[in-house]
Amino acid sequence: MRRITSRLGALAAATLLAATVQTGQAGAAVEAAYFKMRDITRAEFTVKITGPAAIQDAREIVESGENKILVGRIVKRQADYNPNWSFHLDPANIQFTEAAIEVCDATTPYVEDHLDEAGGAFLPGLYWCPWTGRLTEEVPAP
Question: Taking the CB of residue 70, how many other CB atoms lie within 10 A of it?
Answer without folding.
Answer: 26
